Amino acid sequence: MNYEAVIGLEVHAQVHTRTKMYCGCPVVEDTGDLPPNTCVCPVCLALPGALPVVNRHAVAYGVAAALALNCTVHATSIFARKSYFYPDLPKGYQISQYAHPLATDGYLLLSDDLTGERVGITRVHLEEDTAKLYHREGQDLVDFNRAGVPLLEIVSEPEMHTAEQVLAYATALRELLIYLGVNTGDLEKGMLRFEANISLRPEGTTALGTRTEIKNLNSFRALTRAVEYEITRQQEVLAAGGRIAQETLGWDEGREQTYPQRSKEHAHDYRYFPEPDIPPLHVDLAWQQEIAATLPELPQARRQRWIAEYGIRSYDAALLAATPAIAAYFEAAVALAEATGLSPQELANWITGELFRLLNEHDQAIDTQRVTPRLLCELLGLCQQKIISVTAAKTVLAEIFHTGDAPQAIVERLGLAQLSDADALTTIIMEVLSANPQQVAQYLDGKEAVLGWFVGQVMGRSRGKANPTQAHQLLQQHLEQRRSS
Ligand code: ADP
Ligand code: MG
Ligand code: ZN
Questions:
Q1: Which residue of 80, 149, 376, 460 has the fewest C-beta atoms within 10 A of its own C-beta?
Q2: Against a cut of 0.85, is the pTM above it?
Q3: Helix/strand/coil for 152
């Protein structure tokens, strides 16, 4: 029997606010960077009598994400208590949303093809993070800096069938959240965490099979490996005549295996009920529209527009839209280059090629390094006018990157201007021809491939400053003259 895998994803994204979800304690990029238990107050430590207050900015970010995910944002949503006991949960319950979440019924496109595959979004809601536990030298320690940090939970429909689709979904979602400023996308710091729900069903059937849920997948690699592993594991269980037990699994990074954490019998009963200390959350249409009006152009739409308007390759569009900063750089360069006749594709080639190489090599961000869009366009303008060669342009680019100097000044300082003056070039060509009578004879004998060798000699003698196309033309002229004389 052939089985089809069915996968639904739950994603927790830290919301990029300055303060926590229900109190005024600061949220820093990585709460673990601060001394433990320094970002705490009676609310997030759950001291008796402390009352939570909803962070308006977290709600606005949640609404922005929900709108970008094509969800219906509900005029009224309700915070709820999710009760369970664990040392990282000071109140003994998490304030989340349950029966009445912030938003429902959206979708995410897996690719830029607007008519292509989409995955339904079941719900988007707000909740709070737990504290962090540390186990070292026989001690169990709790750091409450992360307790109460806002999280956005995004739950998909069980509509994916392969690890590739799961990766496409996670990638598109991460990119969207980064564009919205909702999340930094920093997986290594745990800013985005995934849980995968997986079941199998006989091919051609529609009823859902029994699922397992893999918790705490914190990298794209772990996510895809775990999904692949779990699909295979379930296939093997079913092929051997066994049944899948509904259980929660962990992912063993080292062994690359899932392992049981708890079974259905040991599943939590969270005893959800509406949070009595927080009134219903109202997001009226006016506020929704206000947020909708501030949404930036989203990455999928942006790439589509570039391909249509600028005629760049989709491969380059993907690289250039990767972050809002790169996208802004590229668009600024395109606007400046319009006057110079440089095509957007040429700009794309230089940015994704040489500039990205320099950024990677020196671990720099595009918006804080020295090669501004203006300097890049000036440099490529020199190349376009054949004042410098492509090779020289690469040298100049690296020099701008390190010094921030103007391209023209660097060209002069390093003496990189091309010898396009025909007289100077002719002098060099005559020298090369008279120094190599043997090769001249070969050429006249019909071995025309030797022309390329002559171009190399001219380039060498000019120390790379000759314009190779022009050198090629002039060499051919002079050699042909010798043939006819
Ligand atoms: P819970 O909160 O207990 O994990 P949910 O109903 O919220 O349960 O579902 C969580 C995720 O599991 C969703 O992404 C959903 O699409 C997915 N899911 C539910 N049932 C199945 C199933 N049988 N197979 C695969 N995924 C499923
Ligand atoms: Mg779940
Ligand atoms: Zn606090």
A1: 460
A2: no
A3: strand
Q: How confident is the model at residue 19 (pLDDT cuts 50, 70, 90)?
A: very high
Confidence (pLDDT) at 466 = 81
Ordered domains of the chain (ranges, CATH)? 3-292 (no CATH), 299-414 (no CATH), 422-484 (1.10.10.410)
Nearest CA to ligand 1 atom 17: 8
Instruction: Report residue 237's pLDDT band, with 50, 70 and 90 as the boundaries.
Output: very high
Which ligand 1 atom is at minimum distance from the Cα of 156?
A: 14
- pLDDT tens-digit map of 280-302: 999 999 999 999 999 999 999 99
Q: At what angle do helices 450-461 and 437-444 cross, to 10 degrees?
A: 150
Q: Write the secondary structure of 43-112 as one string of H (helix), E (strand) and C (coil).
A: CCCCCCCCCCCCCHHHHHHHHHHHHHCCCEECCEECEEEEECCCCCCCCCEEEEECCCCCEEEEEEECCC
Phi, psi of 49, rounded to the nearest 5 degrees: 90, -10
pLDDT for 427: 87
10 alpha carbon to ligand 1 midpoint, in Å? 8
Among 3, 162, 197, which residue has the most ligand 1 atoms within 8 Å of its CB, making it the best to mutate?
197
Q: Which atom of ligand 1 is nearest to the CA of 157?
A: 16
Residues having C-beta closer than 5 Å to ion ligand 2: 10
Measuring from atom 11 of ligand 1, which residue has the nearest CA?
Answer: 8
List the helix and strand counts (H, then E) for the chain: 16, 16
The rounded Å distance from CA 318 to ligand 1 centre is 31
| pLDDT band at 30; cut points 50, 70, 90 | low
pLDDT of 418 > 90? The answer is no
**Other residues' Cβ atoms within 10 Å of the Cβ of residue 343:** 15
| Long-range contacts from 380-387, C-beta under 8 angstroms, 24+ separation | 380/337, 380/340, 380/342, 380/346, 380/347, 380/350, 381/340, 381/342, 382/407, 382/408, 382/411, 384/340, 384/341, 384/342, 386/418, 386/420, 386/467, 387/411, 387/417, 387/418, 387/420
Cα(41) to centroid(ligand 3), Å: 4
Task: Ligand 1, residue 197: give the atom nearest the CA.
Answer: 26
CA of 208, closest atom in ligand 1: 23
Q: Give 61-94 pLDDT, tens digit per residue.
A: 999 999 999 999 999 999 999 999 999 999 999 9
* Per-residue model confidence as pLDDT tens digits over 360-412: 999 999 999 999 999 999 999 998 888 888 888 999 999 999 999 999 999 88
Pocket of ligand 1 (CB under 6 A): 6-10, 155-158, 197-199, 208-209, 211, 213
Nearest CA owner, ligand 1 atom 19: 158
